[in-house]
Design a protein that fits this description.
A hairpin with a 4-residue loop joins β14 and β15. The protein is rod-shaped. 14% of the residues lie in helices and 30% in strands. The chain has 564 residues and is an alpha+beta fold. It has nine helices and 26 strands. α7 packs across α8. Bound molecules: 2-acetamido-2-deoxy-beta-D-glucopyranose (NAG) (7 copies) and calcium ion (2 copies). Its EC number is 5.2.1.8. Residues 46-134, 158-246, 270-358, 382-469 form the PPIase FKBP-type domain. It comes from Anolis carolinensis (Green anole).
Length: 564
């Protein structure tokens, strides 16, 4: 029988009609006139099938058609629920295959026929197209189409996912797609929001992964189907691209990309941090970058000025550190997203490079690099100093250096000529000492910065003190080291003629300085200072100082007794 059936099949492929009437057929004649290139499965006994057909008599008149009822036929193949000819004729069919079947009466409706439709002993001709095949034993079929290299988190129950999909029936008919809807499909997995097959099919995916998920109807919309687009008993094929996933219980995730070997201090709440960042979504698209603005992002942390995930993620950073901060949407921009580039419920990935940070209560930080053994005389307020310096930002960017000028830098301490932090850092230094001074912006150039200095920047100075001259208090030009001579005027009036002209005054002051009895304000032309001192004493401006003028002056300001 089997070999005869095969023979008949072979004949039919050679064109059985051309042979005229071959007499009653023993078996179904099958002509597979369209076989799709891809045939993932073939109908087997017990499979559920959905198909369309046209049924005609030998003369071509139609006696039945599934198309006329506007619905596919669903049934189980090979178990005697269909006419035997159909049971046999459907065996081995692929989805989208088309067959022409010739069913002899004894495999059709026999000698009885169907009242009013099929006369007795009629050979039936069917054109069949297979639409869907599945089995109760079926499991979900998952094919991975693309898997990203980096895949260390995968979808689990109760995760929230955002994905794109194309949904088709098994025969390729599209029924739905997320594309063209401006947005991903967003939902919870394993919480009953999705059809069972989708819950299972999404599980284990990582962001960026692409899968084909074939879902049998009992894990999809089952016997009811869905609306007009998904027929009853339809298998579904979803091509899914997972865009993003997180769990509502997630906190932030940190990855430490680059931590400097030495980290004196780590950031805490209330610190002001300057950092560069690249912000991307899980699919790798860049939504924002500080580099595009050529400016660090500057903010206090832990104070609610930035999204909570960032407030948390910037805690404990070191200056110079590079860190990846992965922020779930409930610690980012939530369900509504932000702007045009951050979709609702998006996970944000910030790659951060910390340039510097400080606290508004920070003092100047001094670290001594070298201190000479005999360091007896150190700088004090009002002293005049000469020093070399290199100034840089904490990320190493060089800003200024005294070595670039012909002469080292000079300054009188406490005169507001240099930034407060540097002034403080130059105190209690001895000649030859080397220091590194770290200056927070409130003791430097502040929020506004200065030419070449970014706003709120922490500055680092390398200092070498070259020279020190003791200073004089504010408003003084000269001070005595101990008590001035008892009879000052007589000491000054060298030729004892009762007057002190500029020459005598100058000679007197020079000898006092030379004998170490006093010193003039440093850092200025001594001649000019002596001249200023003379002018101060010569009250009536006649070019000479008298005893009365000198007395008058010292009575006037008792407190300034060290000065002339
Ligand atoms: C059945 O007939 C209709 C109308 O002629 C045709 O469109 C359809 O393709 C036929 N189906 C098959 C399976 O041949
Ligand atoms: C992902 O993997 C990287 C290294 O490959 C690791 O540093 C990081 O902690 C992992 N992230 C998660 C969320 O497991
Ligand atoms: C869905 O179909 C569109 C258009 O053919 C295609 O660009 C897109 O990559 C498909 N998506 C998936 C997840 O296969
Ligand atoms: C950033 O700086 C670079 C180089 O200095 C310059 O080419 C670019 O135009 C700047 N971009 C902006 C947004 O200022
Ligand atoms: C940000 O992206 C730019 C360009 O790809 C890169 O040069 C820079 O190092 C990145 N920054 C961080 C902090 O990852
Ligand atoms: C500093 O003091 C030490 C002893 O305390 C002394 O030996 C040395 O000479 C002093 N140096 C100067 C420059 O005064
Ligand atoms: C400044 O930097 C130069 C070059 O690195 C170095 O030679 C010099 O000693 C530095 N100056 C100070 C004061 O540290
Ligand atoms: Ca005189
Ligand atoms: Ca006078």
């Amino acid at each position: 029988m089997a070999s005869l059936g095969f023979l008949l099949l072979a004949l039919s492929l050679c064109g059985v009609q051309a042979l005229g009437d071959p007499g009653p057929l023993e078996d179904v004649v099958i002509e597979r006139y369209y076989i799709p290139k891809v045939c993932l499965r073939e109908v087997q006994m017990g499979d559920f099938v959905r198909y369309h057909y046209n049924g005609t008599f030998q003369d071509g008149t139609k006696f039945d058609s599934s198309y006329d009822r506007g619905a596919t036929v669903a049934g189980v193949a090979g178990v005697g629920r269909l006419i035997t000819g159909m049971d046999r004729g459907l065996q081995g069919m692929c989805v989208n295959e088309r067959r022409h079947l010739i069913v002899p009466p004894h495999l059709g409706y026999g000698s009885i026929g169907v009242a009013g439709m099929i006369p007795p002993d009629t050979t039936l001709y069917f054109d069949v197209i297979m639409i869907d095949i599945w089995n109760k034993e079926d499991k979900l079929q998952i094919t991975t189409l693309y898997k990203p290299e980096r895949c260390n988190r995968t979808v689990e129950d109760s995760d929230f996912v955002r994905y794109h999909y194309n949904g088709t029936l098994l025969d390729g008919t599209p029924f739905d797609s997320s594309y063209g809807k401006e947005s991903t499909y967003d939902t919870y997995v394993g919480s009953g929001w999705l059809i069972k097959g989708m819950d299972q099919g999404l599980t284990g995916m990582c962001a960026g992964e692409k899968r084909r998920i074939v879902i049998p109807p009992f894990l999809a919309y089952g016997e009811k189907g869905y609306g007009t687009v998904i027929p009853p008993q339809a298998s579904l094929v979803f091509d899914v691209l997972l865009v993003d996933l997180h769990n509502p219980k997630d906190g932030i995730f940190l990855e430490h990309l680059e931590v400097p070997a030495s980290c004196k201090r780590k950031s805490v709440t209330g610190d002001f941090v300057r950092y560069h960042y690249n912000g991307t979504l899980m699919d790798g698209s860049l939504f924002d970058s500080s580099y595009s603005r050529n400016h660090t992002y500057d903010t206090y942390i832990g104070k609610g000025y930035i999204i909570p995930g960032m407030d948390q993620g910037l805690q404990g950073v070191c200056v110079g550190e590079k860190r990846r901060i992965i922020i779930p949407p409930h610690l980012g921009y939530g369900e509504s997203g932000a702007g045009t580039k951050i979709p609702g419920s998006a996970v944000l990935i910030f790659d951060v490079h910390v340039i510097d940070f400080h606290n508004p209560t920070d003092p100047v930080e001094i670290s001594t690099v070298f201190r000479p053994a005999d360091c007896n005389i150190t700088t004090q307020d009002r002293d005049f100093v000469r020093y070399h310096y290199n100034c840089s930002l904490l990320d190493g960017t060089k800003l200024f250096s005294s070595h670039d000028y012909e002469h080292p830098q000079e300054a009188t301490l406490g005169t507001n000529k240099i930034i407060e932090g540097l002034n403080n850092g130059l105190l209690n230094m001895c000649v030859g000492e080397k220091r590194v001074i770290t200056i927070p912006p409130h003791l430097g150039h502040g929020e506004g910065g200065a030419r070449g200095v970014p706003g709120s920047a922490v500055l680092q100075f390398e200092i070498e003190l070259l020279h020190l001259e003791p200073g004089v208090p504010e408003g003084y030009l000269f001070i005595w080291h101990s008590e001035p001579p008892a009879n000052l005027f007589e000491a000054m009036d060298i030729n004892k003629d009762g007057e002190v002209p500029p020459e005598e005054f100058s000679t007197f002051i020079s000898s006092q300085v030379a004998e170490g009895k006093g010193h003039m304000m440093p850092g200025s032309d001594p001649e000019k200072i002596v001249n200023d001192m003379f002018q101060n004493q010569d009250r009536n401006k006649d070019g000479k100082i008298t005893a009365d003028e000198l007395k008058l002056k010292s009575d006037e300001d008792q407190v300034k007794h060290e000065e002339l």
